Known about the structure:
Blueprint: H1 2-27, E1 30-31, E2 34-35, H2 36-41, E3 64-66, E4 69-78, E5 82-84, E6 87-90, H3 94-97, E7 98-106, E8 113-127, E9 130-153, E10 156-179, E11 182-183, E12 193-200, E13 206-212, E14 220-225, E15 228-241, E16 247-258, E17 267-270, E18 273-276, E19 286-291, E20 296-298, E21 302-308, H4 312-315, H5 318-342
Parallel strand pairs: 5-16, 6-11, 12-21
Antiparallel strand pairs: 1-2, 3-4, 4-7, 5-6, 8-9, 9-10, 12-13, 13-18, 14-15, 14-19, 15-16, 17-18, 19-20
Amino acid sequence: MHFRYIYRASIILFFVLFSLAAAEETENQTFGNYSIIDMIMEYYIDSVDNLVYPDALQPEKTVQQSGNIVGWIDIVGFDNLIMINGEYYIPGKPEDHAIITYDKWETADGWNRGVDELSETIQVTLNGTMVTASMDIYLKWHESTLKSRKICTPFGCHTVKWLKKDYHTETAIFTDTDLAPATFTALNFNTSFVEVVIYNNSVAPKTTIKVCNIPKNILNINYTYNNESVIHYFGTCRQEYTDKNVPFMFIQSADIWKGGIGDGGNLTRVGDMVCLKTNNFSAANLTVSLSDPYNTSEIDNITVHEVKWHGLEDTFSSLFWLFTTIVCIFMTGIIYQFRGLLW
């Protein structure tokens, strides 16, 4: 009776292991040289450098007037903008990344008036969490009056006409204020290091590569060995737009591996590590880089350990012995069932 339960459990475990193997094969499936992960990631961008800015923004044109000066100014948004957990970030000072649109004109022109100069100076300042854009406008215009006077000489009198120009100057300051995004704190990559373990196994040699002390808010880790790459994405990034049509990078948490799986190469992903299918490892051929939304940095601190092969117990994993035991129980159950039918 107890053997029958063990037999049934072994069948269930057998199919569970088979399903896991099938799932891994589906994840690794490719269409020619184009994998399912490639199809997913083509809709995403890797950094703010890939943001595409449209030709037409949508500013809020609140017209202001002072005397003969008319115009508007608007902070439509900020460049290099990202969003994490519903909050906007920029890489530096808000006043350096503000996108300002404006226009100006005058009402001094007329049949007897002319504009000599209409110029502006734009300034952006930060006060607490608020950004203010100011447009300082200078207008110089004149009003013409036709003048005449009679001039007499020994030869006679005649009338001389000329235009008299009276000059006027005006100034105005138009402003717009908006909430400043938070400043993204650059990640400290100096605490991260790469741990390499070489398994000197004559039956199944391999080398594992793992990054330790991974900073928070990292986007991806790129492992490259001899022109083969595996990328671990901790966040997916896609381009979105604000209400004023300013693009920003929307970042969402993810756990996606790309490359090196099922492509016949030497690099594969094993759990949270990358595995090199050889023990002939050279640190000079390895490059591991970390990327946040604004920066990419290579890790120089690489530690290498070697694990020697000491016998059969190092060659086969516990999973192998579990699988072998399940198969033996499965086959024993089949023999037991046939024996019951024959005898």
